[in-house]
Predict the 3D structure of the following.
Amino acid sequence: MTDQAYNFAYLDEQTKRMIRRAILKGLAIPGYQVPFASREMPMPYGWGTGGVQVSAAVLTPDDTFKVIDQGADDTTNAVSIRSFFERTAGVETTTATSEASVIQTRHRIPEEPLTEDQILVYQVPIPEPLRFLEPRESETRKMHSLEEYGLMHVKLYEDISRHGHIATSYAYPVKVEGRYVMDPSPIPKFDNPKLGDMAAIQLFGAGREQRIYALPPYTQVVSLDFEDHPFEASKADHPCGLCDATDSYLDEVIMDDQGGRMFVCSDTDYCEARRAAGHKGKDAA
Amino acid sequence: MTPLLSVQGITKRYGAHIGCADVSFDLYPGEVMGIVGESGSGKSTLLNCMAGHLPPDAGQVVFDTRTEGPKDTITMSEPERRMLGRTDWAFVHQHARDGLRMGVSAGGNVGERLMAVGERHYGDIRGKATDWLERVEIDAARVDDRPTTFSGGMQQRLQIARNLVTGPRLVFMDEPTGGLDVSVQARLLDLLRGLVRDMGLSAIIVTHDLAVVRLLADRLMVMKSGRVVEAGLTDQVLDDPQHAYSQLLVSSVLQV
Ligand SMILES: Nc1ncnc2c1ncn2[C@@H]1O[C@H](COP(=O)(O)OP(=O)(O)O)[C@@H](O)[C@H]1O
Ligand SMILES: [Mg+2]
Ligand SMILES: [Zn+2]
């Protein structure tokens, strides 16, 4: 039952229209950061208020909504955002990737390939990929508009000189359609290849930083690298201990205080579906 | 011969106050022009107007570009001017921290201009950075160290390497030896003189230190209250100054 104290999905219609305009502009200029007037949401910034506002602007009463946090549906963050929209929009929710029409995510792309009927909404803490080396926003804006992206490679250069390889493993920068360099939010670089050529619409919302950007379906997305240090979508070199998947991103889980550990799919829905289909890893009971 | 840089009537005001007024000169390839004058005489204002860091109120700065020949850099598009700024032009700041990225390794500082013009081979970039560190007398083993761990003189030499790595055709320098100890200054001057000779660099050097121009500059302009009061060959101006102000300057009454 929708809480009648709120408009559908909490935000008023005018605000949602403003956010939709920013989304449309973002879709028209893939990878370009569109400023928007971020609203106060009844939750702390760290909880993904940018993603929540984008979800609120795209949700319709017929949607089925899924929220994942680091791949899991059951963290405090995921549960509270899901219940927020259950309460304020009355939409159906699900944990099954294939059943969701709108998926809000923090730090992962689901393993199961998404379709043209789906929208993936990312929560973004820091939208500006050039920020760490150039703190002046006036300057980074100019760098984007003039395609001056040498600085992005300075960061990767520093990585290699310090670690012997590109150690950036999250929020790995990408170039979109040969034009804008974009921060894909802190997803593991394992997920980077899924960003490109994806059938679903991808929307990125940064609440505190008041930016929205987007990738329309089937956009070209290339991870930056050097000729002699090519990009690699790495993950832990194990099969999942529960479902035996060899193609999914794994979390290392400490099992006991004797130092026992196992590797399991970070995408809990993917892992559960495989186990339900009879796959069994070496650590499964 | 076409001048590499032709400066015409550059004027910059700060409100009612004059920064520099009606400065004109030509710089030919391979020439080093010194600009001297006491503090506040307008040297930095002029240099920043020429280098595209400050928009002048009047005047032209015509640069002989590689592809299109002489072009006014004041009226060219900003992307074009910024491209010049990281290819054919270089700018050495008085304070190394204004010209370096202090949070980035020495190698990354030198490599940035290479990456900015599209170099994408880590090994090559690092190789060139190491070569340049050695050329400015920094131990190649320091390539991964940050400039914050360098002495003032080393930082300034690193800034020079970072600027010269892409083989610029024109280098702007604002008091490159200012703020350094005398012995460190001497070493830096020797190094700069060697680089200018070996690379056939064209440069414009702003300084209040006559020893610097004596060593580096072919020609000299003396500025006072924003205007050029005397110009000529360096030795001529220093040994036989004509303008009363130049005479004072040379007699070191106005020094420091
Ligand atoms: N940003 C500014 N705003 C106002 N006045 C300035 C500014 N910069 C310089 N000036 C003035 O312009 C004159 C020339 O300064 P400057 O070019 O810095 O001289 P120099 O480099 O020879 O010491 C001085 O009187 C200085 O006070
Ligand atoms: Mg000055
Ligand atoms: Zn699994």
